[in-house]
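To close the chapter, one final illustration. This time we ask the reader to focus less on the individual chains and more on the assembly as a whole: which components sit near each other, and how the overall shape emerges from the parts.
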Amino acid sequence: MSIFSSRRSHRDPALAARFPGLRGLEIAAAAAALFLVFAACFPTLLAPFDPLAINPADAFQAPSAAHWFGTDESGRDIYSRVVHGARPSLLIGAAATAIGLGLALLLGTAAGLGGRWLDFGIGRILEVLFALPGLLLALVFIAIAGPGITTSVVAVGLSTAPGYARIIRGQIAQVRSSPMVEAAVVLGRSPARVLGRHILPNALAPVFVLGTLGLGQAVVWASSLSFLGLGAPPPAAEWGAMLAAGRTYLGTAWWMTLFPGLAIVLAAACSTVLGRALQRRAVSR
Amino acid sequence: MADQLKPVRWVLAKVLGAAFVLWAVATLIFFGIRMIPGDPAEAILGGPGSQASPEALEQVRRDYGLDQPLLAQYAAQLGRLIRGDLGDSYSLRMPVADLIANQLPGTLLLSALSLLVAWLLALGLAGWSTLNGRAAGVVASGLEIAAAAVPHFWLASVLILLFSNSLGWLPPVNTGSADGLILPVVTLALPLAGFLGQVMRESMLAAMSSPFALSARARGEGESGVLFRHALRHAALPGIALSGWAFGNLLSGAVVVESIFARPGLGRTLLNAVTLRDIPLVTGVALVSALAYVLVMAASDVAERAADPRLRTA
Amino acid sequence: MNSNNEAVLRLENLNVAFNGEPAVRGVSLEIPAGECLALVGESGSGKSVTARSLIGLAGTGAKVSADRLELSGRNLATLSQRAWRHVRGRRIGFILQDALVSLDPLRTIGREIDDALRLGSEYSRRDRARRVLSLLEDVGLDNPAQRAGQRSGELSGGMRQRALIASAIALDPELVIADEPTTALDATVQAQILDLLAGLRERGSAMLLISHDLAVVESVADRVAVMTDGRIVESGPAAQVLGSPSHDYTRKLLRAVPADHARGTRLSASPAPAGQAAAHVSGQAAAAGVSGASEAPAGPAAVRQRPLPVRVPAGRPPAGTPVLQAAGLTKSFRTPDKKPFTAVDGVSFELSAGETLGLVGESGSGKTTAARLVLGLAEPDGGEVRLFGRPWSGLPERERRSRRTLIGAVYQDPLSSFDPRLTVGQLLADALSGGRSLNAKAHAADTARLLDLVGLPARFTARGPRTLSGGQRQRVAIARALAPKPKIVICDEPASALDVSVQAQILDLLDDLQREFGLSYLFISHDLGVVRHMSDRVAVMQRGRIVEQGPAEQLFASPQHAYTRQLLAAAVHPPRT
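The assembled structure is written out below.
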């Protein structure tokens, strides 16, 4: 008896794409996300020091047993500041995402459900918003409205809105023309019932996934604005603002830049991994 | 006859679309400024607290016709824009058009190089992981997610720490020489490669498991033959379709990267203009960026159709 | 088996397993030169895995073993991957189904065929180019020079399949394996492709034909092997296996073919007592692969004795009264390149109470558009639909809505017609309550009776439609269509996506329900055999027009229109029973 294995001959990437062995990564991301949320809710339980207490004698200390992430130019403990930074940073990201999604829901559903002209009009509005991609729209908005936390939140929300809106519009259009809706019409359902029972629930189901996926990007953009001096002003313990402060001392105190940045990367990566996990579950259901 | 008219109509539609976008951007900024409470002359000269001199304010009022009715001001502004007159930057005391003409090439070069590097990285990673089994796929997926999650400003700082401060291989800021381009390009390309890699790898994997790949194997094609002759093109398609979006991502990233590496360019100019609330300059940069973006989108449309015959017949 | 030394392929005791699940169990095959062996089975029977194992491409994670795998006396079982590549294409040609996806859509067919030559021969570039053209000519493509520069998306289904065949036979392989080579094709094209394949065999190649379609098999194969659940249960000369089958499963397959069974006769297992039927099915270990034991058809006797979920109103229209009239229906669309296209062109028909009108035609003939007009999902440009003598088309939807309960529909793909968020119970509760309620519990009794009516157990109410097999989904779809007590049901290819034995059960079920409730069916299908079995009268559609209609037996016995005759001739002959 002979055995010829076809291990290398034909892989099944569809399987690999659906089950990429990322389960471990997903569990790690969920744990990290829980940790971040916990830090945002109860920072004092995790942070040994006051994030704002100035102690010039301890300035620019490298990471040590006492100060895990080192200290900054005023002797503040970076670890404590990173922990305390979770709340403002995540809140800003969440608020921006909520604004973006809210605006997108309004525009996307109106375009998907309204008549041809409404769809056309909203399509043109989205095109204009798309023409100033990412930070550009946010910057133009800030140029008009002035810098600050509130404007930077609205600015980031505004720049994420057109992407969401286009997805929601497409989703509604797709469900609207699906055989499922035709079957409901054949059964004699009124337009209101078809809309409320079939179109909206199915078309808007991915909104939660979109929000999870987008949250990380919103955190990144909002911290970029803070870094550029247009969002949260220093000495606030917000990750972007901390990085802005660290920029001046990049050559001497690398820890001021490394650790707040890692926190941002962690938050953004968690949101991507978890968002994709939700997406996969929604598709395979 | 109809076939000959098609490209003409397409070009016409694109030109009209671009004109509409530019008009809308100019209009939004114009009315946006005037909706902010306070003196519009002051708003144009850096907002409240900019302490513009009374002479300068008076100059602006005269230049912009701020004593005129709002609609007359608007018409005058549009008239200037149509003639190509973007006004003067108050902070730099130069015509906006000249400023932008000086800054644009640097940004375009940076974006084009970054896009190229991002493409190569994404395709390379996809190809490597496809030929090396499931574990490589997990590694590639993790790398892509991490890369896409990295903010430009932090990546730039870390790269400077590593390659300039520790290793001393590359200059931390722009020196005008070619090696000053390496760090900015890598900073812009890595996160973009993370995004592109996710879609390209998925598309490549789908092609490798498709019936036409099975046909090719049944013809005697090896794995790398299937990859290079078939799957690579299929992986490139979503990359081409996303290149307009990618260009936008790069323009947005250029704001941060140019200011960190002290490179001249559109992004840094915009940031300075926003910080000083130099509205004529902001308007000019916004209009030029929007125009560039619309043009790149149209080009990526054409490229997509050229690359995928199915879009032409359908 | 007559084992002489001429056997091109000799396979003994092939076993394939995926993750410990056996997919092929002890299959042995032998094909002499110039002969065609057909491997017949339903989906999940292991026939395709067998075929792919023969070229060393069984799939990821496949554990393959065989006592012997020889091609013209040469052992293949111990080949390295590199050595396999010299066998594939050069000595074994492989033809997959549906060339639209089996040819790279981004490359021209000329290059796809050229690949086979480049990989397996020493021809120069110029010789290869010449050979590509002559191959295209051999497989019957007109204007080869132009065709070679086209991509699969620019060709019709038949032309594509020819190009794919050309790429598989480019190097004159000793063995040609064709996996469902005609499945996606219309009947007339299917006949042409089968002729082409039969011609290959005459060139001296051995051929292994994989198919689920007994009619296809009979027209080409010399020998037939019937496969189910990974095993070959019966094999022998085609005439013997199909003419006087010795195994139960073969008999079941043959009985399930609707073509030769008169209207009203049963296709699925005879109405045996439930216990016996279940034993039969489990004995076949879920023969159809997808079907669990619950797929076991409820005997019609049982169906009839059960109380109806909804009382059929006493005022059932007397047989013969027209319930649905279509007069001069016309509907045009614009193609993507803005050219007007008339999908339905002056179509008229009448459907009487309790009868089935079959609407048959090839893809693109306008059948489905006609169905949409009748269902009021699209408005005709000209002509009129009347329902029970009253206007139906052209009315505002608001006025139609109250009469929608009169007319139901069953689609080819039931899954896409279900809201994916709802369970079976919720889907039926929605249909029973006129959309007012999704509460499956409140309608538990009615839901259970509806499920019982279509032969499903009541516990299915909690299941999501995605977890059901194809046949079970179609049963749920039928139950949903019947919930509002319709008089007319539009069946658009209701069994076309199903395996033949499951198709038989669904067709029998529709038949039973029609008699039970006096339903009228507009039955749409591309399959002449199915339409003939199901219909009292038949209308034949071609390019948007009805070219002929009349009583089914009369139309099939003496077709008047040339197109009908062409269709009948193209429909490969059904097996004798």
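Chain B touches chain A through 65 residues (CB under 8 Å). The longest strand of chain B covers residues 88-89. With these observations in hand, you are ready for the problems at the end of the chapter.
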